[in-house]
Amino acid sequence: MGIERVTITIEEELLRKVDQRVKSGKAKSRSHALNLIMNSYFGQHSSIPAIILLGGEKQYFMKKIDGEEILKQIVNWLKNEGISRTIVTVNQSNFQLVKNLVGEQEIEIIPESSPLGTAGAIKQFRDQLKETFLVVYGDVHFKINLEEFLKFHRENGGVITMALSSVKDPGKFGVVKVSGSQVVEFVEKPKTSSTYLINAGVFLMEPSVFHYYPTKSKISLETEIFPSVAKDGKLFGYLLSHEWVDVGKL
Is residue 192 part of a domain? Predict the structure, then answer.
């Protein structure tokens, strides 16, 4: 995709909104902010469905950072990035709470009558996921540019690209070992670790990920899918350069 330099005239009020995106860290520059806005308007990412995982009984998604619930932050980020279809999988006991928080007009809220695990929750949409799709844990606060994330994913040609962060105590998380951008090993909550890189809870996946799924309904991404994809050399890591918080660990 080529890039062409252009000169435009823009109203002062609109320019202030563009500059606000830069100040908030959502864009690197005015040109970057305008590019993101136009991508969102013309629906460049609209064909990519997104799944937010809220399967557990605990309500970490209701915790606030900067005065706003984590789930609302994630939903707003998806809207700003031009995602037209967002699915939220939620524990049955939290269904009404999620519905009251984000509504059902633009978002599909799917309750789980029984625990399916992080991978099992995705598997129920297998027949609908025919292209690259996005998966987000519902208890993480993060900043990521979807356009750059998607470009990285497609350039590597993997099955899964996992956003990565670095923490002081990796034993509480899914720990990764990398060679360049390729994840060569994934271990969930190891007792010891030689790396500080961890799973940040944001993923781009290809439909071919379902080739790694067992036939049962309750399946874990962390213990069953990620290790297998890494073993095949099809798991890649995208290091986040901005703030990241697992609110469940606060």
Answer: yes
Measured distance CA(153)–CA(206) in Å, rounded: 10
> 29 and 78 share a domain?
no
| Average pLDDT along the chain | 88
Please tell me whether residues 19 and 98 are part of one structural domain.
no
**If DSSP codes are grouped into helix, strand and coil, which group holds residue 116?**
coil
Residues 23 and 135 in one domain: no
Query: Is 234 one of the annotated active-site residues of the chain?
Result: no
Q: What is the DSSP letter of 47?
A: T
pLDDT for 14 equals: 85
Instruction: Supply the pTM of this predicted model.
Output: 0.80
Q: Residue 32 pLDDT > 80, yes or no?
A: no
pLDDT at position 1, please? 42
Strand residues in 104-234 grouped as ranges (E): 107-112, 133-137, 140-142, 160-166, 174-179, 182-188, 197-205
Q: Does one domain contain both 29 and 71?
A: no
Catalytic residue among 28, 72, 177, 189: 189
